[in-house]
Amino acid sequence: MRAVGAIAAMLFAAGSVVVHAQTYPSRPLVFVVPYQAGGGVDLTGRIIGAQLSQQLGRAVVIENRPGANGTIGADYVAKAAPDGYTLLVGGTGPLSLAPAVYKKLPYSPLKDLTPVILLVTIPQILVVHPSLPVHTVRDLIALARKHPGKLNVAAGGISQQLAGAMLASMSGVQITSVPYKGTAPAMNDLLGGHVELYFGDPSMLPTIKAGRLRALAVTTPMRYPALPGVPTVAETLPGFNITSFYGLAVPSETPREIILRLNAEAEKALADRDTREKLEHSGLIPTGGSPEVFAEFLRNHVATTAKLVREAKISVN
């Protein structure tokens, strides 16, 4: 009788999950952006969220939870109810850089979060304030050698810190890293001329095209279609490669049926012409794929990032 009761309980639980998945979503979804409003992660979340809201007939609320290089927001989602209503719009920082640089992390990106879909991939763009008399990475290195430690690179997150450290390490120059609590304050100080350089995301493209910032290079191995005339850092420093990404993740133990529903809806959103145009106009490269594809991408990214962090000798605590 106990065995029969156990089997009945299992069947009831399985049936409940199916019914829940069929009626999902029955209330608004919350997209947790672990940074302040205004950056690339926030922009991606708002563009995808708006399209998902249309498709699902439910509101998608953007909730900015900045701090600690994106780990506060990621930890919040990792500990949320695994019901598909709280999602992380996660970037490189909290999903692959944090495990490499934090000795004590309150969550594991690979264990406490389940990948849903890889939304976009993007390069970082090395920019300088127009007042700085440099036009190439070679010019920048020469100036840094002439004035050791005098040039300041803003770091709005761990990925920017890593990029700055890699530039300094691979070129053998001293550049001072200045940490900020997010992209917006870093950009404000850069535009105000308080810091000289920054590795930022494609949300800077309008500012670059307006001439308020000067793009020197991109961090990916190949040149960036949105800035075809801008070389890669690797053209001056062979082997330099930092590729960022934004994706959706949910708490572990979220029902598989809900993850597949979210993945399918996000794929549909990425295929929408207006959505793709908005992303591409902002310099983001729509990507997509199954949860398994994103999971494998994330595992590889975590391993590669850990190697880069060791080589650059970066540590947060």
Word description of this protein:
This protein has helices at about 1-25, 40-55, 70-80, 90-100, 135-145, 160-170, 185-190, 205-210, 255-270, 275-280, 290-310, and strands at about 30-35, 60-65, 85-90, 115-125, 125-130, 150-155, 175-180, 195-200, 215-220, 245-250, 285. It has about 325 residues and is of the alpha/beta class. Strands 2-1-3-10-4-11 form a 6-stranded mixed beta sheet, with helices on both faces. It has a 5-stranded mixed beta sheet with strand order 7-6-8-5-9, with helices on both faces. β6, α6 (about 160-170) and β7 (about 175-180) form a beta-alpha-beta unit. α4 packs across α11 (about 290-310). The radius of gyration is 21 Å and the shape is globular. The mean pLDDT is about 90.
